[in-house]
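Student: I would love a firmer grasp of how sequence relates to backbone shape in proteins. I am handing you a single protein, as its sequence and its fold in token form. I am told such tokens are a discrete way to write the fold. I hope you can help me see how the letters and the tokens relate. Take your time, and here it is.
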Amino acid sequence: MPGGARISFNSVDSSLSSLKNCQSYINTGMDIATHVALDLVESFNDVEDVNSMESVMLEYAAMDRELNHYMRAVEETVNQIKREKPENIPDLKYLVKEKFTALESKNSDSDLQRNEKYMYFKDQLKEMRKQFCRQSDNDNEAIEQIDEDLAVTQSQMNFICPITQMEMKRPVRNKVCGHTYEEDAILKIIQTRKQQKKKVRCPKIGCSHVDVKGSDLVPDEALKRAIDSQKKQSWSRLEKSAGYAAATNKICC
């Protein structure tokens, strides 16, 4: 046929759309696994339980890589056919399999460890352990009230947004410089500067990063949990103090 065979890719496009939906399920699974791992750290569970969640994350990362390779193989095959416009309809299944096999042959463990959600998992796990080990140490070593108050004050300093100067409710961390901000506050600054066609300098005093972008911000779940935990501990101390004061007052009276 002059000009090449006329091929409809509607069914292929529909299949790709379905595969992308599958990818969203994988992403949701990785988010759930991350939350479960953070729950385990927060409740001081056995390290083996946390490690099992890391294995789950790596399995999800492998599924995500395989799915990405298959979608890439399909898209490259379709683009090749559209570009070359062959006279006869080619064997799409064979061409896709050939490209997919070539992509899979280059797999390595480091691919999985570079998965964005896996990297986020590892980062949040590290921060979570840091935050809750610090709190645990504070509880064990606070022999004198003045030392405990000082430890709480130092811990709370990490919870303050450099923009609002208030305790953060929805902290996000900058992947570039590592500093955290209140989500609404930093996004408002980014939006304002964007309208002015200006870059945003990191609000943290002393930071040299001069181009904060919304795409570089990720939720800091570990810090949020630490803030929430600190609030619960503070309320618990207040309730104990109130109970002690009430009991003392009753005895005295």
Q: What stands out?
A: Confidence is low (pLDDT under 50) at residues 141-153. Residues 47-84 form the longest helix (38 residues). The radius of gyration is 26 Å. The longest strand covers residues 171-174.
